[in-house]
Amino acid sequence: MLGKSFVAASILALLAPLASAQSALPAAERRLNVQVGALFSLANPGIPRGSSIYYGSLYKGAGAYIDIDPHVRYGFEFAEHEVFGQYIHERTLEVGPRFHKQLGRYVPYGKLLYGRGIFSFPYGIGSLRFNELAFGGGTDYLLSPTIHVRIDYEYQRWLGFQSHVQGFPGALSPHIISVGVAYHIK
Question: What are the chain's domains?
Answer without folding.
Answer: 31-185 (2.40.160.20)
